[in-house]
Every structure is written in C-alpha cells, then in structure tokens.
Design a protein that fits this description.
The protein has 552 residues and is α/β, with parallel strands linked by helices. The chain has 18 helices and 14 strands. It has a nine-stranded mixed beta sheet, with helices on both faces. It has a five-stranded parallel beta sheet with strand order 2-1-3-4-5, with helices on both faces. A hairpin with a 2-residue loop joins β7 and β8. It starts with 13 loop residues before the first strand and ends with a helix.
Amino acid sequence: MKPLYGKDSAIPYEKTIVFLGDSITDEGTFIAFMDAYFLQHLPDHQITFVNLGVSSETASGLSEPDHPFPRPCVHERIDKALSEVKPDWVVVCYGMNDGIYYPFSEDRFEAYQQGILSAVGKIKQAGAKVILMTPPPFDAESFDAGSLMPLGQSTYSYAAPFAQYEDVLKRYADWIMSLEGIADALVPIHDQMLHLWEKKREMDPRHVTGDGIHPNAEGHWLIASSLLRVLFNISLEQTPEYVLEPGSSDLFTVVLERHRLLSSAWKEHIGHTNPGKADALPIELALLKGAALASKIRELAALPENEGRIRTSSWKGYERVDFMLDGREGLIVFPKQFAAGKPWIWRAEFFDAFAYADMALLEQGWAIAYYRLSNMYGCPGAVERMRTFQSYVTSTFELTPKTVLFGFSRGGLYAFNYAVKYPEQVKLLYLDAPVLDMQSWPGGKGEGPGAQAEWEECLSVYDRTEESIATAGCSPLDRVEELATANIPVLIVAGDVDIPLPIAENALPFEQQYRQLGGTIKLIVKPGVGHHPHSLEQPEPILAFIRQYAQQ
C-alpha cells in the first residue's frame, strides 16, 4: 500500500482530517495528543483535526437488546459530515460496539463488514482519502463496568459482555488489515496495544489498561503515535510527560480545552442520534474561540519550559540529552570526559543496537548522537534534515564539526547519501551489514526476499516507480565514484550468509568498486554470520580503523 506521505516524507502544511468512531474517538485524547504535537513542534503546519466521534456508535447499525437506547450508526450522519467539513482525509475506527459484546456471529460480522465498506465508498466518493484503524482490544482483566458473562447466555451487553469478546474483536481487526487496496491506509492499533499490555504485565501483573473497553492515556498515546507514523511518517519513541500526567502541562490543558470545544460544536452541528447531547457553541463561534486558543497554545509552546528542545537524564551511567528538532527526536549521550576536540559518532539508525563500538568510543571520550528519521531510507529529504541536525548539535553542544557516521542495515543508505552530499562534514563511514543496493533490499530483485511494505514506502519517499528507480541512480552502488572522489575512508562489517542483505549484492561489489577507484576501504567478513548480530563483540578492529583515519 502506497503511504499517504509522498516524496521525502514531506509533512503537508495544510490538511483537514476528520475522525469518525465510537466513544474511544469521542473521548478524543489521542486526537488531542496529535494536535498538541503539531501545535508545539510544527506550529507552521495548519493541520486541522475534526473529531466527530459519537459515544455508543457503530458502523453496522446493530444494537444489543439491553442497551438503554438504539445505538447510533455512522451512516445516519456521514453524508452531512463529509459535505459540511470537506475533509482531505478521514480516519475511521469502529468495531468495539459492532459485535454488540456477544460471541462471534457471521451475521453480525457481515453487518460490520458492509457498514465499513459502505463508509469507505462514501468517503472516496466525496474525494477524501480513507484511513481505517483496527478496533482496539477488549481487556477482560481491566473490565470494571459490570460482569463478564460465559458462553451460552441469552443476552449480553456492554455492561455484561461475553468474557472472550476480545476473540471477536481480533477477527474484526484482522479483517480490517485485509483491506489493503480498498482503504488508502491501515492502522493496526489492535495487536500493537495487546503487545504493549503484555509488556506492562510482565513488569506488573495487575497493570490496568483502562476500563476494559476504553484505553487509558497510555493507550491513547499508542493510537496517536501510530497515526503519526502512518499519516506523516513521524516515528516517536519518547512519551510526552503530559500523556501520563495530563494536568501537569499548562500547554496540554489548553489543547484539551480547545479540542473538546471544537469537537462538541462540530458533533452537534453535524447531528447524531445519541440522546446524550453535549453543551456546544454554534460552530462559527466555536471556530473563532478555537483560533484564539490556538494562538494561546503557540505562545505557551514558545516558552522555554514547553519548547521541548532539551531534556537531561542518566543513561547507562552517562549524561543523555533528548530534544525535538523540526518535529523529530534527537539525542546526544556525553562521555564522562571528552577526548581532545570533542569527537562524536552518529548512529544513522537503530540507536543502541549492537552498540559494542559505540560504547567503547563513549568510554574513550566520544559522544554518541542519533536523530530519528526512521523509514525515510536516506532519501534527499532525510539528508537535508540530517544536515540541520548536524548544524544544531555541533553549534549547541560545541562538538567537532566533522562526524563519524555509523550506518547499520538500512542506516547505510542514510550514511552513504549524507557523506556524498556533504563530504566536508564526514570523517569516515562505518557501515555494518549495510543496504547498498535498494534493488536487493527492500526491492527483493536479487537473491534476498525483500520486504514489500518497506519497498512501497521506499519508492514513495524517493518519488519513484519500480521501473524508474532501477535506472535513477538512487542506490549507493550507483554512486560509488562520488564517494571515492570525496576520499572518505569506509569500513564495512558484514556476515557472509546474510539472507535479507546478501553480501554479494551489497558489501562485496561496493568494496570492489571503491577499491578500484582508489578509495580507502576495509571489509571485515564474518564467516557463517547472517544479518544479525551486527558489529563485533570485541570491537577493537573497528576502533583501530577509526583511530587510524578519523583522528588524522
């Protein structure tokens, strides 16, 4: 499936995104989290989030007999929602209520399927792109709104659900994920949330995830970060402080106030059949008040305590500084005492993975840097962001102007392309089981299996088709001469039985070409080793190469 973001993963400056869903969407914390991200970190982007979620709603039109009123159905209002808001994108999340808390039934499942497909058709007919989210899981261990009921009961409801209702939602979620080619994008929050809960309960078996139906703030952040990844190719690992302590942030308090003001106004303006009507301003007045609150939020975001640029912590006994730069996460780990000149290494991808050389250099007085540009495959947009990052860290932290770039796996694309574009900023490259031919990976056009989803994503950020990328000269193997001209030393470490990235299609031909062109290069082949483990557990050969060439 082609990603919604296009060439260079450029974040659009203006989009209107409508959210349709049940009470999880209606509550809207995940939408407020996304809004806060843009208002705080990318304030020049006019991304308008319109929350039209309605509590108790379904896509299927079904309602359990014990529900206090007939459940609303999105099809009662979707046409007006689309015509009034005129969205560019529509995010749809249903399923929790559509099984009406009963055991699985083919008839109910078919009603859900038809309801979702009908909504997709109407959204596309209106000229918008449709993003389908899976329903989140049902967490029986956290359910506290009534009693869980065994199989064989005559009736079930949200207050007395089938004890294994999660099995029903799993089937609904799997079906949503089968709709590639029908929807414009799919967001798999169901399985991701189950994985999160599993990890939490490994640490605390009594961990509560919400009320069983509605996830807590932690779950809403998972939804928000999943949407940011799918819609905008923004990968975030850090969790904002206001996620777990919403009241601790003046900025987020105003964001949430604005979100609820606009959501209530839009919901009542469009109309719905849930008897619970929100107190809402007329939409014109709400939009004016919302604009005033947005200005206040931007003022708060500009304050030093909210700007989010620098946060200090301890990491493996070393000082670590995290910051946001142009909406992306960056970090620096400082040695206890710098070596002469304040040298630094830059992980292009996979921070702290197989970090034998990184840690050894840290102990010897080098800083470690990382800028999260995941899933950009070293495209030109990633390279320009990297240049901004290097300028920022060298000036802010007074590091040596030139860096040593570590390119692990797909990080090889970032490291190589950056060194070719900005050779004066790079001392040397250490490439470890690197991608050096995109036809090999993720394309899978040689001996390796490739990776279809990553290939489509790669084609998108390079703005190429399968046919055009083969002759476009985008891969490092197509540009070896450019790097050799810059006379940048290169160290490659690779296993000789790497299946995803065959050495014969990547490291070996690169090494041969670079050497023939007069470039300085060393290839360390690990016999009998595949793609993992990376690096060398005893990293002295890597350190020796760096000492020889980076300190000249």
